[in-house]
S1/P1 nuclease (Urechidicola vernalis), 259 residues
Amino acid sequence: MRVNRLLVLGLVVLLALPLTSYKRWGQTGHRVVGEIAQKHLTKKASKAIDKLLNGKSLAFVSTYADEIKSDKKYNKYYTWHYINMDMDQDYAAAEKNPEGDLVSGIAKCKQVISDENASKEDKAFHLKMLVHLVGDLHQPMHIGLKEDKGGNDFKVKWFYKDSNLHRVWDSDMIDGYSMSYIELAKNADRLSKNQVAALQQGTVVDWVNEVHELTKEVYGSAEQGENLRYRYSYEYLETARTQMQKGGIRLAKVLNDLF
């Protein structure tokens, strides 16, 4: 009986592995964004955020917006994670989702956090959402085509295993590098104060339009059904790392302005 129970337990664990493997930038990417942002906060912003999050780090809360997808009561926030744009459009010309998108979601988070009458609980919730959404904004497939759901229906293989172009950029490529989020953040490029300031210029919409130029490149980087391996990682991992660093630096800008 004991052996049978162990076999059943083992089977349950094996069946659960694909679900956690493809969970969600993925968890590592979002934590990199949060960790980098933490290092660029002003003392004032850092203190206020620490109080609002009860001591939790930005890296810790960065995956919250994906975790709540399991609860139907948060379904109204689902569309905040992405923007659908045709290749020849900028954000102004793109058809807007009436249920909201990355731009309107970030704006709503900023509005609640700035509202003196909002409760601490409400502010903390929208702060966690904001940390995640600024990260999503810098993952190029979160500003993708409607017809393939931002690359989710763009089927490819990753080292002979079924995947899609969105997942490759969300997690496959980053997790395949086998560095923790701490290691990735620590090894981000060294930038001068002027370089950081330059990255922080512009509005959220400006950042969306900038990332969308990269989205076009990513769509052209693979063919449907292609088996992506070492060469793809060699050519694009540095781009993914740059995007995570930009996301962290710009998230810090947004938070410093708010607090």
Notes: Residues 79 and 97 are 8 Å apart (CA to CA). Confidence is low (pLDDT under 50) at residues 1-24.
